[in-house]
Design a protein that fits this description.
Order of helices and strands: HEHEEHH
Strand order of the largest sheet: 1-3-2
Shape: globular
Radius of gyration: 12 Å
Distance between the termini: 13 Å
Strand content: 5-15%
Number of domains: 1
Structural class: mainly alpha
Number of helices: 4
Length: 83
């Protein structure tokens, strides 16, 4: 998944305002997400998936849009992106 596709995908999650399974975060952004979520409260959904609450996810999404990405997955670090 390209970075621009990942951001678009995250926007769809953002507008739902529901629990967000960690596995739903695109690979290219997982490290940044984990860094942001460090120390945050998590819960499990009915499927047993570890999830971020919508407020924390939305705060992370807003950080991505306003301030950018702190950590990219290594395979994407040298790629040329147009967002």
């Amino acid at each position: 998944m390209q970075l621009s596709e990942a951001i678009s995908y995250l926007h769809n999650i953002y507008i739902k305002r529901e629990l967000v399974p960690f596995d739903d975060i695109p690979t290219v952004l997982k490290k940044d997400f984990w860094k942001f979520m460090y120390g945050a409260t998590v819960s499990k959904n009915s499927n047993g998936d570890i999830c971020a609450n919508s407020e924390d996810f939305n705060a992370w999404y807003n950080k991505l849009i306003i301030h950018g990405i702190d950590i990219l997955d290594d395979e994407y670090r040298t790629a040329d992106f147009t967002v």
